[in-house]
TrEMBL record:
This is Uncharacterized protein. The keyword Transmembrane applies. It comes from the Bacteria. Keywords: Membrane, Transmembrane, Transmembrane helix. The chain crosses the membrane at residues 28-48. The lineage of its organism: Bacteria, Bacillati, Bacillota, Bacilli, Bacillales.
Length: 166
């Protein structure tokens, strides 16, 4: 007979089993595309919407050995503790101006600075002395500590600053 064998070619196009397989593959492709789009959007959202620090409060203490060294041990950022930043800003808004208090400008209890790191700006540069009836705040009003304005705050506000200072 013939050495050529006829092979029967079976086409799966149009059969029920191939249609099920095609539908299954299409569903997986659609699910994979949706997953890729979701993950891409999520990562883009994280990357592009980072909250920036606009207020930073630094609370520091003078070094015991060197008067010219200040250690800022507590730094509060508005992205981490907005209520503390708001409370401190309100305390500084309510302070009352006073005449020459009995304090040593070179030896405060704490140093407190309010900065805007986004714009590289110092907003408040102050020194604070705690008293029995509240606290005295010296705020630098010029380029150096030669121009100082003194303020007082109430005992409740002073207690809050002590708590923040640690």
């Amino acid at each position: 007979m013939s050495s050529l064998k006829k092979t029967k070619h079976v086409s799966r196009i149009g059969t029920k089993s191939s249609k099920k397989e095609d539908d299954f593959v299409k569903k997986w492709q659609a699910a994979l595309m949706m997953l890729i789009i979701f993950i891409g959007g999520y990562l883009a959202g994280i990357y592009f919407s980072k909250e920036e620090v606009t207020r930073e409060i630094r609370v520091g203490y003078q070094d015991r050995g060197r008067d010219d060294v200040i250690h800022f041990k507590n730094i509060i950022k508005n992205t981490e503790n907005q209520s503390a930043v708001d409370n401190i800003m309100m305390i500084f808004m309510k302070k009352e101006k006073i005449a020459d208090p009995d304090v040593n400008l070179e030896k405060p209890d704490i140093y407190l600075e309010v900065l805007n790191p986004k714009h590289f700006t110092g907003l408040i540069d102050s020194r604070i002395w705690f008293k029995d009836e509240g606290a005295v705040i010296a705020e630098r009003s010029g380029e150096s500590w030669e121009d100082v304005v003194y303020y007082s705050i109430h005992e409740q506000d002073a207690d809050y600053l002590k708590q923040i200072a640690g």
